[in-house]
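quick one, 624 residues, struct below
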Amino acid sequence: MRKVCRGTVMACVAAVILPATAGAHIERTPTFVDPAADERIVPPAGGAFVKIRRPAPPERRLAQFRRSAERRLRDGADEADRAALLHRFALLSKRQQAAAREYLAEELGTRPAELGLDDPRIQAQETLVVCQEDSLKRLRAAIGQVRSTPEGRKALSRERARRILADNERYLELCRFDEIHPAVMAADNNDLVLVMPGFYTEPTARSKPHNDPACARYVERATGAPTYEYHVNCPNDLSLVTLIGKDLDGNCVRCNVQIHGTGVRAEDVILEGGVDVPDPGVSGDLFEEGRGPAVGAKEVGIRVERGDGAYVTNLTIRNVEEHGVYAIETDGFTVDDVNLFYAREYGHLTFVTDHNIIKNSEAAGSADAGIYPGAAPPTRPRINTIVKDNYAHHNALGFSGTMGSNTLIKDNRFVHNSVGISLDSFYRAGHPGFPQHNTIIRNNVIAHNNFDTYGEDAWVKASVQAAVGTGAWLVGGNDNLYAGNHVYDNWRWGLALMTVPDALSNNLDRPPELPQDLKISTSHRNRYEGNVMGISPEGQVLPNGVDFWWDELGQSNCWESNKGAPRVTSDPPQLPTCDAFPNLGLSNPLKEAVLVACAFATERDENTLLCDWYQRPPKPRRRR
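---
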């Protein structure tokens, strides 16, 4: 969510008079990606959610291909057999592919052309290894640390630990890089970049000028934002690591590239963005409550530009001036098991990106949102983004999505943020896809979101407006479903719904256009069903300030079959059910006045007579 004024009809009138404030980050004029697979290369790039390619020493992959070919060709290969062999063939290096063709012809009597293996579009998978002098020492220490507890021994068996160590010993023999960015730049389509345990500061990238005048000619004149050409020519001006997926003619040059940490956990590979930050070592705390971010050397940790088919996994990114990981205009992108700590804007940011996944990751210490898939493509009814099994805590917003549409948010923990989940329809000019719509928020834990990011002693300072004490708010969106969530111990609101008039989403730098700017296109047909309010999954009663809050504006919004302790509370006291007719909210003047006041307050002591969003509310009493 941007730091822009918000409110409803009354705020709309004020908004065209007073200037809006904006966040530090500026996107270039975006272009939605083509969701179809790019079949100019094999395997194709994009067109589907990206699956992990498990790393293995190259010689093992060749042996696996030979065994698979012998088994599948024994009685004649059908279409499924040919597809499976093509998949394994594309995991081989160019040298191994030549050996595989020879094996098929000489040992199995099969011409590669019969299996389609002579297709010039087929890519090879080279393995590029990044290491540090102490990589194996750190890995051995990490294995010992993990296996020092019964839980750790259960998660990491002795056999698996030995296999991981043996694989890394082989990777060390293949290591040719001691920094991540040069390895990524050396990659080709389908390549695998393996990063061994270590503390990576990327000194070469840091040495590149920041906002280099030589790069200024690539800045977009209308917005002042860096263009795609900017990042192609100046990849380290703003970022420690940049993956450029396509050339300026749109041809894949680094599509389907995967970046894997090779340790036993994400903490073993640290991409450190902070200035003069010491190596915390294997047992050091990478995130600590009460400790704020360090000054970052660059804006972004890992940037993915049109990198269709990219996958980033099993590493930690810390202390960057804007975003930990940032993908834009990319079809097919997965972040899996990544720690995103201490970003001064977003831990995770994706923009106009399709077939997008973030899972099994932890995001903490972000001044804006820990997780942010924004300006999602209009793919209704197809889900374009999946956010699952993540842990977002101690951010201003645990999750945020301006025009975050057609997203599935499930099985996450959004706890100890100022606001747990934020969806909105602001900033229409910079975020295509207005209005936000058709997102499913299901089976999440949304709790304890009372983290103060505005006080003098706040160690994470919010760069965004957030009503402290809110489980989740929907600030202008349509056709969203909140179902089966556990929402508890949020001291202001459990789940809140409010409207954004079209004028607030349009470019407020232009004069008002009436009457169309008074149109209200948002806050319609949202459903809240089967949520458990004020009760933890373990059955502990921890009430919200108010379970459901609504500004009472919008059509066909409904609340039904939600459970409370001992009852659901709401403001207004009566909410429409899903079979109610007519179902039309006509607004509440008192609530409008509060929203207007909060629209222009960005911190404490502004409009405090009406707006208390930036003060942590008192803990609610247990209801009877």
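Residues 2-24 have pLDDT under 50 and may be disordered.
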